[in-house]
Design a protein that fits this description.
Chain lengths: ~325, ~325
């Protein structure tokens, strides 16, 4: 039997805690450390923080560099921010400590587009320290990008890809319901949208990941956000939306190549969305239409993607990876 | 730019010709040779055989070993037989010549189950000659196995997988319509089924591929074949099925692990099948149900899978591979 992967959890928000709990149940993984900046968590036993019902003998640290120096480990699950710029210094610290890293940071799913130079530097450092880093999750990371790319393996010719993800935000955690603008007036929505405070981060990353893998040097990349207005009252566990108010968000990204609209990604996340689903439609030979009925549940699937990617990561060549350059995604044992 | 992959086409049946035509259109591939045992093809220009409308300057050979010795090449697309035993000597010849090989041989998709010893020997030879070999196609190779495995990457917990593929054989080539028994009486069907002359080869391979990847040491592997009886007349381009006669085949494979039916694959291939589709249903957390509407068209997708797997193969470590051990499947440029 191979040795278990020794994992440090970096960030103990909802996704981070779910990932850490999942590691606890994996035969070939071992949870050896945790770090968070929240003073309410620092110093506590991780078992208590995770609600594991037992002490894990692992104390939550507030000092990543000290923790990395003192704890023999193989990999870090990083769940701390959506911003690659914010995550960058943390990645550097992780890689300098000789640790692999899988991150839920949305912009890290394909950092070569927005942060070409920094991504290149991180790749260099990874190679120097013989570590692998990748950003993943359910979206970006899986349903709107990796899964669509895998489907193209059945195609002789590919003309365009359209992906639609419809999420009923009422079934998701409160933070996400707030993030999509549920309950706001249209004016408030537009003000916050302008400040990029209402926005799913990662749609453009999914788009440019696909374009890169398909060899399409896009001439244009566009992204747009619009409110979905409730036409009747919608109540969730956490909030109520009056008719005429914002139920959530519709977000589009599209990519133009050689004058053609070759990539169209659309994400609808609003409370009360009917028929939640993921649809991938490929125009080509053969044409293909794939539907995940009900959609892939994000709160559950994102921690799964993070943990399931770890075994691929520790076997990958050193470097800053994308889901394209790792092995075949699958559940970790 | 990397050098193009120089390809030899081994076998010029329907799938082999389609794969070779596809290679012609790929920027990073070059068709440099072809071999077949049919005296009607040997000595002719490959362009003529493929209906390419031009001479390719490649003459169809009847002698693989001579061809391999005289033609600088990187890889072989092997489309000659469903049987690993029949293909084995051909694989040995290919690998001895230092060539990678992707094969449509159904039993080669997971040869470690039925031919453990021979598969091990071929793996050894691959390593010695620094070549990679893999069996793939749409089924087995993609819709009922690889795609299902990829979907598990979104799962925290996996309890069981059920895959259903429904193919309207009326939309497929004549050889396939005959192979599924369309037009036979029930008695004829059972006689031929007993002799294993009516049977889709590869369902068990898909099943044991999944079990192996998921760490399920199956206690039982069962496979069964039953006729689908037409309840009304069905006419295709090639044949007619009277009511009460056989329209095609239903084939099941299931795997039991720790007393539970953890894997169930069902393939329905008959003329006039309504609602053709591929369904993958995962019981677990989160539960997932994926549907490919209309199903992945086999005649078009199998050559695609073969050609699209080539770039993964030439970059893989030497050895006898499965789709699990190569990189992320995707369309080749």
């Amino acid at each position: 039997m191979t040795k278990p992967i020794r994992v440090i959890q970096f960030g103990l928000g909802a996704i981070g805690c779910a990932a850490a709990r999942l590691v606890l149940g994996k035969r070939h993984m071992q949870l050896v450390g945790a770090v968070d900046r929240d003073p309410k968590l620092i110093g506590h036993d991780l078992g208590e923080v995770l609600g594991a019902g037992r002490s894990l003998g692992v104390t939550v640290s507030g000092k990543p560099a000290v923790l990395f120096g003192q704890t023999p480990a193989d990999a870090v699950i990083h769940c701390a921010t959506s911003s690659f710029l914010e995550a960058y210094e943390q990645f550097v610290e992780i890689v300098r400590a000789g640790l692999h890293c899988v991150s839920s940071c949305e912009e890290a799913m394909f950092p070569y587009y927005r942060y070409r130079d920094l991504a290149g530097r991180l790749d260099d450092l990874c190679i120097k320290r013989r570590c692998a880093v990748v950003g993943t999750g359910v979206n970006p990371g899986f349903v709107m990008d990796t899964l669509a790319l895998v489907l193209t393996a059945a195609c002789q010719r590919l003309d365009s890809i359209r992906v639609l993800r419809v999420v009923d935000a009422a079934t998701r955690r409160e933070a996400l319901q707030r993030k999509v603008g549920a309950g706001l007036s249209e004016d408030e929505f537009h003000r916050l949208a302008q400040d990029k405070k209402i926005r799913h981060v990662g749609l453009t990353e999914s788009l440019v990941f696909l374009a890169d893998a398909l060899g399409w040097s896009l001439d244009e990349v566009n992204e747009d956000v619009a409110p979905v207005i409730a036409n009747k009252q919608v109540k969730t566990q956490f909030l109520a939306v009056k008719p005429g108010c914002v139920a959530g968000v519709r977000q589009f990204a599209h990519g133009v190549w050689q004058g053609r609209d070759v990539l169209r990604l659309e994400l609808q996340m609003y409370v009360g969305a009917p028929q939640p689903r993921d649809e991938i439609e490929i125009s080509g030979e053969p044409p293909l239409k794939l539907v995940v009925e009900g959609g892939v549940a994000g709160d559950s699937a994102t921690p799964a993607l993070l943990v399931n990617t770890l075994p691929l990561l520790v076997e990958a060549r050193p470097g800053l990876h994308t889901m394209r350059t790792l092995g075949l995604p699958r559940i970790a044992l």
